[in-house]
Specification:
Blueprint lengths: L7 E7 L19 E2 L2 E8 L2 E11 L2 E8 L2 H15 L6 H7 L6 H6 L11 H10 L5 H15 L1 E2 L6 E2 L3 H5 L3 H5 L5 H16 L9 H9 L6 H11 L11 H12 L9 H8 L6 H10 L10
Antiparallel strand pairs: 1-5, 2-3, 3-4, 4-5, 6-7
Helix pairs in contact: 4-8, 4-10
Length: 300
């Protein structure tokens, strides 16, 4: 099917292999609006725009639609959105192993379809992780919205916006990024990371994620938490636990102290607690927070 302007529409109905619930809450970065229970997202393959829509028709049926200049581009957009939503993840082995676990079993039984809140574009996951370092999520999301408004891409057909590309960020002076609310050190780290990606020296699409992570870690200001957030939310790596996240430090601190709300664990203590859940440490961490009073902003 094609529009009057020559754009092609492709629709794909997906039956999830494990319980799935389309996340319909509003994302504070503004990139994934929900209109009438339909999730919208603008993506880019190079310079080519793809607008994707997703609606859950039934518990076991989800409809993806995409409009682009060609069927291949539309199919690419649907595949990206499927990956970002984690709809094709088979979580049965994890659920069967941990549904009666002492720490996370109650959450696993109550919400077997819990998944990370993924990003369909791995560079966006990296850039947003830099924005979210050591500050409240609401403040970080405001920075992300400013970046998108000033440097992002807009679809003239739908009005949707996409995050800035690696090439666009790489071309900016760090002072320009700092004007949106980033600290000078994080602005410089983001520009340097974008240059690595835009040049091809770091390939975020390469299945050998660890090679890219090692190169990113050589950039001052790109530490384990940032790389782990990239892996968990942008590359589908459920083994990646952002152990330095304040939510985990508080959660494990309360466990170790017997309930002291002011206690904080070390990163090493967090990693030791979740090590038995390998290779699903990241997913186990989400269930641990979901089953506690801690606020979860990584889970869908």
């Amino acid at each position: 099917m094609s529009d009057d302007d020559g754009r092609v529409e492709v629709r794909v109905q997906v039956r999830p292999c494990w319980p799935f619930r389309l996340p319909l809450r509003r994302q504070l970065d503004g990139l994934t609006p929900v209109r009438g229970r339909v999730v919208h997202r603008l993506l880019h393959a190079g310079e080519d725009a793809v607008s994707v829509r997703v609606v859950q028709l039934a518990p076991d049926r989800v409809l993806f639609g995409a409009r682009a200049a060609s069927p291949a581009l539309a199919e690419w957009g649907i595949e990206r959105m499927r990956r970002g939503l984690g709809i094709d993840l088979d979580l049965r082995p994890f659920n069967e192993r941990f549904r009666f676990d002492r720490l996370i079993g109650a959450s696993v039984r109550a919400n077997p379809g819990l998944r990370p809140s993924g990003r369909p574009d791995p560079f966006q996951a990296l850039a947003w992780a830099v924005c979210e370092q050591l500050i409240e999520y609401e403040r970080a999301a405001a920075i992300e919205r400013r970046l998108t408004a000033a440097l992002g891409r807009r679809c003239r057909h739908t009005g949707l916006r996409d995050a800035p590309s690696a090439a666009t960020i790489a071309a900016q002076a760090p002072a320009r990024l700092a004007s949106f609310g980033l600290t000078e050190s994080r602005a410089l780290a983001l520009v340097r990371a974008a240059r690595e990606v835009a040049s091809g020296r770091v390939d975020l699409e390469n299945p050998d994620h660890e090679t890219g992570w090692r190169r990113l870690r050589t950039i001052r200001g790109i530490g384990p938490w940032t790389v782990q957030m990239l892996g968990l939310t942008g590359q589908g790596r459920l083994d990646q636990l952002p152990a330095a996240d304040v939510g985990y430090l508080k959660f494990v601190g309360r466990l170790r102290s017997g309930g002291d709300p002011y206690a904080r664990a070390t990163v090493e203590e967090v990693e030791r607690l979740f090590a038995p859940y390998a290779p699903w440490c990241g997913l186990a961490g989400l269930h641990a927070l979901a089953g506690s009073s801690a606020r979860v902003r990584l889970a869908a």
